[in-house]
Design brief:
This protein has 10 helices and 12 strands. By secondary structure, it is α/β, with parallel strands linked by helices. Among the domains are: 106 residues, Response regulator (Rossmann fold, 3-Layer(aba) Sandwich); 163 residues, Histidine kinase-like ATPase, C-terminal domain (Heat Shock Protein 90). The chain has a 5-stranded parallel β-sheet with strand order 2-1-3-4-5, with helices on both faces. Helix 3 links the parallel strand 3 and strand 4. The mean pLDDT is 83.
């Protein structure tokens, strides 16, 4: 029979004949043995080799008996799991058995021992040891599997977090693209519709009054059509450039702008619409005020607000006035009309950055409803603020801020 090297038995007895007889009785079981002729020698063996499956310990030994030896063995935590069977020549007296079990014994064998009884008892503990070893291995494998599962779970969580972050980034990008699309359409709707209306009005007048129109009127109207068409083309070019910048996620490009000139340019595009409703546009901005802004965005802000002012002012109404004042490092621009005014709900929707519902103007003019939202976004791009003062039936004042342009001195570099 092959020796099971995992089953190691320490035999302790002060009589070498007893050691030999025990080994002979158990040699058919395939165990490996170590010997000790005293309790002290047994402790020395266990000091160097603790990997024993069972200890067969004689009770009656000189200097240190089996009970004392067992107590000293079990004082060490690393040895507490080794079962001890006491071998005694005494009867199984209750007091002796109690002392043995108190010392840590798991069983007793009486001398002279019955070989078959010895083999049976040792085999039982050997089998228990094997099963415990198997359980330990299974526990180790289970522990390793759990650690691997924890690691895989952590990796999975990290991947989920990474994918979630990627999806959030994609959703943010998608919302930005949708917003850019809405902005682009809104600029087309608000900034190009009225200049085109001006061309249509002039062309329609020329068409209907072809027989009565004078040469001077033809020159005037054709001049309006030509100039407005050029402005529209420039606006379209600006829009295409702006759309490309949005797609490339580039920032807006602020530069030095003469505020009065930008307002005049906006007025030129809106004069036909204002004249149609017999409303004057007044630029009360001082000539020396310059802002640091994106020209396209600033013109879009002005044209959207002024277009709304014209839209909600009755024919022949009070002039629409644009004023500005420098407040520290900002310029506050105010656009005031005396039209229909805005309800608290419309103002709140604007402040909450919700999609605004398009209202009909005094002459049933329609809009896309995105103009004011576009204004707010463009002002925010300039790190500015915007506010509305309005009362139904009395008019509206839009106030927004744009950074003032500051000349950089060479000494500042």
């Amino acid at each position: 029979m092959n020796v099971d090297k995992n089953i190691k038995i320490l035999i302790v007895d002060d009589n070498e004949n007893n050691l030999l007889s025990i080994e002979v009785a158990l040699e058919g079981g395939g165990y490996s043995f170590s010997r000790a002729l005293s309790g002290r020698e047994a402790l020395r063996v266990l000091l160097h080799d603790q990997d024993f499956s069972l200890i067969l310990l004689d009770v009656k030994m000189p200097i240190m008996d089996g009970y004392e030896t067992a107590e000293l063995i079990y004082e060490r935590d690393s040895l507490k799991d080794i079962p001890i069977i006491f071998i005694t020549a005494h009867d199984y007296e209750e007091a002796a058995m109690f002392k043995g079990y108190s010392a840590g014994a798991v069983d007793f064998i009486r001398k002279p021992f019955n070989p078959e009884m010895l083999r049976t008892k040792v085999a039982v503990f050997a089998e228990i040891f094997r099963k415990n070893q198997l359980l330990k291995k299974q526990e180790e494998r289970l522990k390793a599997s759990n650690e691997k599962l924890v690691m895989l779970n952590a990796e999975l969580e990290n991947r989920v977090m990474e994918r979630t972050a990627e999806l959030q980034d994609l959703n943010t990008e998608l919302r930005a693209l949708n917003l850019s699309k809405d902005r682009f359409l809104s600029v087309i709707s608000h900034d190009l519709r009225n200049p085109l209306s001006s061309i249509l009005i002039s062309a329609e007048f020329m068409n209907k009054q072809a027989e009565k129109i004078t040469e001077k009127q033809i020159l005037s109207l054709s001049g309006i059509i030509h100039k407005t068409a050029k402005e529209i083309l420039q606006q379209l070019n600006d829009l295409v450039d702006w759309a490309l910048k949005q797609r490339e996620k580039s920032k807006f490009t602020p530069c030095k702008l003469d505020l009065g000139n930008v307002i005049d340019q906006s007025f030129e595009l809106l004069n036909s619409f204002a004249n149609q409703k017999k409303i004057n546009l007044i630029n009360d901005v001082k000539a020396d005020i310059c802002v640091n802004g994106d020209e396209h965005m600033l013109r879009s802000i002005l044209q959207n607000i002024i277009t709304n002012a014209i839209k909600f002012t009755s024919i022949g109404g009070e002039p629409i006035r644009v004023t500005a004042s420098v407040l520290g490092d900002e310029v506050e621009i105010r656009i005031t009309d005396h039209g229909m005014g805005m309800s608290a709900e419309v103002i709140q929707a604007f402040q909450d950055l919700k999609d605004s519902k398009s209202e009909l103007g005094t002459e049933k003019e329609r809009g896309s409803g995105l103009g004011l939202l576009l204004v707010r976004e463009f002002v925010a791009q300039h790190q500015g603020s915007i506010a509305i003062e309005s009362k139904l039936g009395y008019g509206t004042t839009f106030k927004f801020t744009i950074p003032v342009f500051v000349e950089m001195d060479v000494a500042d570099y």
